[in-house]
Amino acid sequence: MQERIIYFDHAATTPLKKEVLDEMMPYLTEQYGNPSTIYKLGREAKKAIELARERVAKALNAEVQEIFFTSGGTESDNWALKGVAFANKDKGKHIITTTIEHHAVLHPLKYLEGLGFEVTYVPVEPNGIVDPQKVKEAIREDTILISVMLANNEIGTIQPVKEIAKIAKERRIIVHTDAVQAVGQIPVDVKDLGVDLLSLSAHKFYGPKGVGALYIKKGTKIHPFSHGGAQERNRRAGTENVAGIVGLGKAIELATANLTEYASRLQKLRDKLIDGVLSKIDYVRLNGDRYNRLPSNANFSFEFIEGESLLLMLDMKGIAASSGSACTSGSLDPSHVLLAIGLEHEVAHGSLRITLGEDNTEEDIDYLLEVLPEIVSRLREMSPLYEKVKKGGR
């Protein structure tokens, strides 16, 4: 039994870095001023917020005035979708997205459908990547917004957002991307991508929970998120989460400082894991494109087992992993992402998502490859379907 927990669920959340906490601490203790006040305590808090805004803008290659702080990725997605829809409904009520988006995108869109907006859900290819041509074919005269995630939170596939944005710009359609999983893992440059809005969340790259940001390109027509104060240039009322914002700024600065080296190390571990699982275990498939995926992500489906049992047995071995999105872990329904790439319900239920982070080592991968085949074998011994297959009766 391992003495420490081997943490393989960095797509759900990451630990807070000490350097980030150290920078946050003064704003949780002696630097407690309200940023909207004019005396020194307030001015110091305001200065800290603006430094964080500069750090986020630099990391994304954005302008400082285009960065707005939120409570996280879900709020950023909601603001982008609803804000654009309400502000541009005089031009049209049609929105385009994909079938594999996070629920923070899909649920607001369902809400907008209830208000009379129309949404086209473009299917992805079996490798988990959307075809830009299919997005183009979905565009109508009344299309006002296209929202496509930069990287999928479950299967890690990187989407052709740049190509989609280029298509959209020809028709003067606003483009939003949910980059919550991408920031801190791959280069994210809003100018290169050509997007109008981009969502991110601090706790995905070793920052604090409960704080995120929305990039809004200058000139984008969007409604304010909330009313009641002049914070965030009159677009998001409410006293700012100063310590959280400070933490976000520091975390994104650290996350983008050595990105190439970090991603390269994770990719080597990821590839070793994928090769090991596919060679050691039968009736298993890798979900998502083999190479066009986040450097940290490996998602497998094992036939003839149930994912929750797999996770519990891994936990008993000191390994923390997941079967998909942390936001839907209480649901008994199979992953909509895995169904969207063509998996059958029973196969989708036997999924395992491994997402790596900076503390993971080659020894961690070796240990997982040692215990995982044993666990899968034990679980399959309980399956009458597997017994039938072994006897040649598939």
TrEMBL record:
<dbReference type="GO" id="GO:0006520">
    <property type="term" value="P:amino acid metabolic process"/>
</dbReference>
<dbReference type="GO" id="GO:0046872">
    <property type="term" value="F:metal ion binding"/>
</dbReference>
<feature type="active site" description="Cysteine persulfide intermediate">
    <location>
        <position position="327"/>
    </location>
</feature>
<dbReference type="InterPro" id="IPR017772">
    <property type="entry name" value="Cys_deSase_NifS_bac/arc"/>
</dbReference>
<feature type="modified residue" description="N6-(pyridoxal phosphate)lysine">
    <location>
        <position position="204"/>
    </location>
</feature>
<feature type="binding site">
    <location>
        <position position="239"/>
    </location>
    <ligand>
        <name>pyridoxal 5'-phosphate</name>
    </ligand>
</feature>
<dbReference type="InterPro" id="IPR000192">
    <property type="entry name" value="Aminotrans_V_dom"/>
</dbReference>
<comment type="function">
    <text>Master enzyme that delivers sulfur to a number of partners involved in Fe-S cluster assembly, tRNA modification or cofactor biosynthesis. Catalyzes the removal of elemental sulfur atoms from cysteine to produce alanine. Functions as a sulfur delivery protein for Fe-S cluster synthesis onto IscU, an Fe-S scaffold assembly protein, as well as other S acceptor proteins.</text>
</comment>
<comment type="similarity">
    <text>Belongs to the class-V pyridoxal-phosphate-dependent aminotransferase family. NifS/IscS subfamily.</text>
</comment>
<feature type="binding site">
    <location>
        <position position="153"/>
    </location>
    <ligand>
        <name>pyridoxal 5'-phosphate</name>
    </ligand>
</feature>
<feature type="binding site">
    <location>
        <position position="181"/>
    </location>
    <ligand>
        <name>pyridoxal 5'-phosphate</name>
    </ligand>
</feature>
<dbReference type="InterPro" id="IPR010240">
    <property type="entry name" value="Cys_deSase_IscS"/>
</dbReference>
<keyword id="KW-0001">2Fe-2S</keyword>
<keyword id="KW-0808">Transferase</keyword>
<feature type="binding site">
    <location>
        <begin position="73"/>
        <end position="74"/>
    </location>
    <ligand>
        <name>pyridoxal 5'-phosphate</name>
    </ligand>
</feature>
<dbReference type="InterPro" id="IPR015424">
    <property type="entry name" value="PyrdxlP-dep_Trfase"/>
</dbReference>
<dbReference type="InterPro" id="IPR020578">
    <property type="entry name" value="Aminotrans_V_PyrdxlP_BS"/>
</dbReference>
<comment type="subunit">
    <text>Homodimer. Forms a heterotetramer with IscU, interacts with other sulfur acceptors.</text>
</comment>
<feature type="binding site" description="via persulfide group">
    <location>
        <position position="327"/>
    </location>
    <ligand>
        <name>[2Fe-2S] cluster</name>
    </ligand>
</feature>
<dbReference type="GO" id="GO:0051537">
    <property type="term" value="F:2 iron, 2 sulfur cluster binding"/>
</dbReference>
<feature type="binding site">
    <location>
        <begin position="201"/>
        <end position="203"/>
    </location>
    <ligand>
        <name>pyridoxal 5'-phosphate</name>
    </ligand>
</feature>
<keyword id="KW-0963">Cytoplasm</keyword>
<dbReference type="GO" id="GO:0031071">
    <property type="term" value="F:cysteine desulfurase activity"/>
</dbReference>
<keyword id="KW-0411">Iron-sulfur</keyword>
<keyword id="KW-0663">Pyridoxal phosphate</keyword>
<comment type="pathway">
    <text>Cofactor biosynthesis; iron-sulfur cluster biosynthesis.</text>
</comment>
<dbReference type="InterPro" id="IPR016454">
    <property type="entry name" value="Cysteine_dSase"/>
</dbReference>
<protein>
    <recommendedName>
        <fullName>Cysteine desulfurase IscS</fullName>
        <ecNumber>2.8.1.7</ecNumber>
    </recommendedName>
</protein>
<keyword id="KW-0408">Iron</keyword>
<dbReference type="InterPro" id="IPR015421">
    <property type="entry name" value="PyrdxlP-dep_Trfase_major"/>
</dbReference>
<dbReference type="GO" id="GO:0030170">
    <property type="term" value="F:pyridoxal phosphate binding"/>
</dbReference>
<dbReference type="Pfam" id="PF00266">
    <property type="entry name" value="Aminotran_5"/>
</dbReference>
<dbReference type="InterPro" id="IPR015422">
    <property type="entry name" value="PyrdxlP-dep_Trfase_small"/>
</dbReference>
<feature type="domain" description="Aminotransferase class V">
    <location>
        <begin position="6"/>
        <end position="368"/>
    </location>
</feature>
<keyword id="KW-0479">Metal-binding</keyword>
<dbReference type="GO" id="GO:1990221">
    <property type="term" value="C:L-cysteine desulfurase complex"/>
</dbReference>
<dbReference type="GO" id="GO:0044571">
    <property type="term" value="P:[2Fe-2S] cluster assembly"/>
</dbReference>
